[in-house]
Design a protein that fits this description.
By secondary structure, the protein is an all-alpha fold. The chain has one domain. 59% of the residues lie in helices and 0% in strands. It contains four helices and no strands. The protein starts with a helix and ends in a 41-residue tail after the last helix. About 15% of the residues have low confidence. It is a multi-pass membrane protein. Belongs to the TMEM88 family. One of its GO terms (molecular function) is PDZ domain binding.
Length: 142
């Protein structure tokens, strides 16, 4: 049965807030995973740019004694070369963790705000929000 307009607005705000929180949780998890996995690339490229004479030309002791322009260029190239595989690893880790924690299932459709009782459609419709309530289809992720 449909909700009243005031109740519908309140439920819409609640569902919108919950979806925003789930989105921020996903974003935070992705940021942490990508930062940890890409840390070697970040460090190598940082030291390469810091010690190159054409870029920053730091006066640090390790830049003068260990790294010259050729080795700084090699560090920059190495950092960008190892970035691609590490991006793939970070994305695989995030997807596996999101699947295991079922984070993408936490998003709620706004049509739940329109009707009482949790069902958002009539039996037989193929809407996504009905996967739990109306249709008896197989799960996409087993």
């Amino acid at each position: 049965q449909p909700r009243s307009p005031c109740c519908c607005l309140a439920w819409t705000l609640l569902i919108g807030t919950m979806n925003c929180l789930v989105f921020l949780l996903n974003l935070l998890l992705m940021f942490v995973i990508f930062t940890v996995v890409l840390l070697p690339t970040i460090v190598v490229v940082y030291f390469g740019f810091q010690c190159h004479s054409q870029v920053l030309h730091s006066s640090a002791r390790y830049c003068k004694s260990i790294l010259d322009d050729n080795s700084s260029s090699a560090l920059i190239i190495l950092g960008f070369v190892i970035m691609s595989p590490l991006l793939v690893v970070a994305m695989a880790i995030y997807c596996s963790l999101a699947r295991r924690l079922q984070l993408l299932v936490c998003f709620q459709p706004y049509s739940l705000a329109l009707y009482k009782g949790g069902r958002c459609c009539h039996p037989g419709e193929g809407a996504l929000c009905c996967a739990r309530g109306c249709s008896r289809q197989l799960k996409a992720w087993v």
